């Protein structure tokens, strides 16, 4: 799916930057919210040969990852300027409703079954 983002990069920017910036902006108005957990992707670091630290420079390689990196940077700055209580997670293979069957987590579950 990542490489497919070259077919219509504007769709990824609308979804992963514009729409999510609007969502976080609205959510930040609710003062009872103590923490936002932002699920990003390790793809923002690009191809690496070893473990990376969170401070490692971003090196996105596709429109999808550029859009994710952009939102990560926006939220980081929003945290620094306005104390938005955001926590980042850049994990691979997050599983949830609607996950495609060919992805590793559902595929592993089906294979084990």
Produce the secondary structure layout:
Layout lengths: L8 H19 L8 E4 L23 H20 L3 E4 L14 H9 L1
Helix pairs in contact: 1-2
Give a quick rundown of the structure:
This protein is mainly alpha-helical and 113 residues long. The protein has helices at residues 9-27, 63-82, 104-112; strands at residues 36-39, 86-89.
Which properties best describe this structure?
113 residues; mainly alpha; Rossmann fold; 3 helices; globular
Q: Could you characterize the architecture of this molecule?
A:
This protein is mostly helical and 113 residues long. It has one domain (3-112): Rossmann fold (3-Layer(aba) Sandwich). It is 42% helix and 7% strand. It is built from three helices and two strands, in the order H-E-H-E-H. The chain has helices spanning 9-27, 63-82, 104-112; strands at residues 36-39, 86-89. Strands 1-2 form a two-stranded parallel ribbon. Helix 2 (63-82) links the parallel strand 1 (36-39) and strand 2. It is globular. The mean pLDDT is 88.
